[in-house]
């Protein structure tokens, strides 16, 4: 019987690569326009590198019942690419080839001829987990770096906060309000909890 298109280890079933979807703009809530703060543009990536990143995101993010959607995946991708802009330049340069190397892990792990981004989520997750336990330290470090970038963005998404019953926005809004009051010349209060500098700011 010929292999099916759902068999990720098959060397014969090679469907066309999934389209690269442009993620929506990244919006950071609570930022003051007067801060002079501007979010960096996403790290440029070619279509192959973006497909690799999207496949790795699907494999690394928690499985149901944890929140998941294609929209969430796109926001994580954009967050990772923006994150890279704040890293040392060598990190931005090396991250793309590292993604491509991980995307083709099925080949150099002798698990098939299809890249990881064509695999279903569960087998992709199993392969990435196996790589994280590799005897080769460079492979483990690759997985650690990519997992940190992906999951830090995953756990910063509002639907994930909701699922965890974690609500950081009231605190962030309170800090923004405190900053506004201090800039207006109002004294800090004990309930503002701004630490050892409170006496200086009063």
Structure characterization notes:
This protein is mainly α and 202 residues long. The chain has 2 domains: 43-166, no CATH class; 168-202, no CATH class. Helices cover 51% and strands 0% of the residues. It is built from 9 helices and no strands. It has helices spanning 47-60, 70-85, 89-103, 105-108, 121-132, 137-154, 158-163, 169-183, 198-201. Helix 1 packs across helix 2 (70-85) and helix 2 (70-85) packs across helix 6. The chain is elongated, with a radius of gyration of 21 Å. The relative contact order is 0.14.
Topology, element by element:
Blueprint: H1 47-60, H2 70-85, H3 89-103, H4 105-108, H5 121-132, H6 137-154, H7 158-163, H8 169-183, H9 198-201
Helix pairs in contact: 1-2, 1-3, 1-5, 2-6
Short description:
The protein has 202 residues and is mostly helical. The chain has 9 helices and no strands.
Give the averaged pLDDT, no decimals: 84
Cα-atom radius of gyration: 21 Å
Domain module tally: 2
What shape does the CA trace take? elongated
Proportion of helical residues = 40-55%
Number of helices: 9
Helix and strand pattern: HHHHHHHHH
Strand content: under 5%
Which sheet architecture does the biggest sheet show? none
Low-confidence parts, pLDDT < 50 over ≥5 residues? 1-6, 8-14
N-to-C span:
79 Å
Secondary-structure-based class equals mainly alpha
- Give the total of beta strands: 0
């Amino acid at each position: 019987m010929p292999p099916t298109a759902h068999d990720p280890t098959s060397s014969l079933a090679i469907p066309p690569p999934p389209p690269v979807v442009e993620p929506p703009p990244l919006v950071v809530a609570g930022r003051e326009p007067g801060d002079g703060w501007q979010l960096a543009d996403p790290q440029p990536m070619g279509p192959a590198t973006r497909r690799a990143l999207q496949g790795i995101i699907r494999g690394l993010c928690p499985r149901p019942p944890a929140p998941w959607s294609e929209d969430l995946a796109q926001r994580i991708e954009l967050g990772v690419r923006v994150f890279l802009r704040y890293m040392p330049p060598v990190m931005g340069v090396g991250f793309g080839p590292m993604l491509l190397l991980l995307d083709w892990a099925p080949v150099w792990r002798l698990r098939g001829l299809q890249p990881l981004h064509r695999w279903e989520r569960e087998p992709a997750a199993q392969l990435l987990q196996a790589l994280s336990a590799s005897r080769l330290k460079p492979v483990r470090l690759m997985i650690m770096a990519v997992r940190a970038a992906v999951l830090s963005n995953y756990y910063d998404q509002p639907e994930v906060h909701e699922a965890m019953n974690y609500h950081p926005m009231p605190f962030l809004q309170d800090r923004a309000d405190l900053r506004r009051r201090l800039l207006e010349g109002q004294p800090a209060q004990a309930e503002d909890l701004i630490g050892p500098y409170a006496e200086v700011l009063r």
